[in-house]
Design goal:
Length: 287
């Protein structure tokens, strides 16, 4: 999975911001530097490039790239095997761990997306959810190799810019691999709840991101965040709190930096933008 980890479920959350068009990049004034908070899309179509100018400006003005996790290590075979092993049930399969209505709906959605219960039965619900959504995105021409994480990581390597991960690989994987069974089923439930929109949601979410339509972004996921608060705490809000110390340290360093995280981590009353504002930092959205 590598760069796909967390790709779709981390794209949006509740937001409180003006509705005018802009970018998913914010400028934060540090003690002696500037830190750019940039919202990532983990899968993108070819037409996403060239990127909105705010991303290019933020990268060009930064001497450090901060990312969720080490992209090179995420691509390692050992990491992929660790994730797949954790995704496998030790005993039984989906047919043994889902109730009858949820299993029937899962069969239907898997068949519709070109997967099958026979192929996915050995995997836990969180992994099945991810497989369904990634399959839907890829069917619409969205590719993980075109995601912003890998794009800017590779540029930073070529440009000899240092890269700082916000999480260890173990912590990054554990968000999913150590997920309690109830939350794992909740993650699949979110996907099933939105299954009728799988053919259209990738393009719609892309438009929200590309045009900087934060209000539209929020409207697409408000109900899920309200319906599954514990899941969203685990996927988004708890990690925001954990990352804040590192981002604050970067704000107190002399060098400008670009912090690239899933767009959902930046917005809303518990997003990184609001958290930094609450600490007294001046944050402004870039056009």
């Amino acid at each position: 999975m590598g760069r796909v980890i967390g790709a779709v479920v981390l794209l949006a959350c509740i937001v409180s911001a003006s509705a005018h068009a802009g970018s998913f990049v914010w400028r934060v004034a540090g003690t002696e530097n500037t830190v750019y908070l940039a919202g990532s899309m983990h899968l993108l179509p070819e037409r996403a490039y060239p990127l909105p100018q705010a991303y290019e400006d933020a990268y060009a003005d930064s001497g450090l790239l901060v990312v969720e996790a080490d992209q090179d290590r995420l691509q390692a075979d050992a990491v992929r095997q660790t994730m797949l092993a954790a995704a496998h049930y030790r005993e039984g399969g989906l047919v043994d761990h889902l109730d009858a209505p949820m299993l029937a709906r899962t069969r239907e959605v898997l068949d519709r997306t070109g997967l099958s219960i026979d192929r996915m039965n050995a995997y836990r619900p969180w992994f099945v959810s991810m497989a369904i959504e990634v399959q839907a995105y890829q069917a619409q021409g969205f590719r993980p190799d075109l995601g912003l994480d890998g794009y800017f990581h590779d540029r930073a390597v070529r440009d000899d810019k240092p890269i700082l991960p916000l999480q260890t690989i173990a912590a990054h994987l554990a968000v999913f691999t150590d997920m309690p069974a109830t939350l794992s089923r909740d993650q699949l439930a979110v996907t099933l709840d939105n299954a009728d929109e799988l053919d259209t949601s990738p393009e719609q979410i892309y438009r929200y991101w590309q045009s900087g339509d934060i209000a539209g972004f929020a409207q697409s996921v408000n109900e899920q965040a309200d319906a599954y608060p514990a899941l969203y705490d685990r996927l988004i809000f708890d990690r925001n709190t954990q990352w804040l110390a590192t981002i604050t340290a970067v704000l107190n360093s002399p060098d400008n930096a670009m912090v690239l995280v899933g767009a959902a981590h930046l917005v809303g009353p518990r997003g990184l933008v609001a958290l930094l504002q609450s600490k007294g930092y001046r944050v402004e959205r870039m056009d």
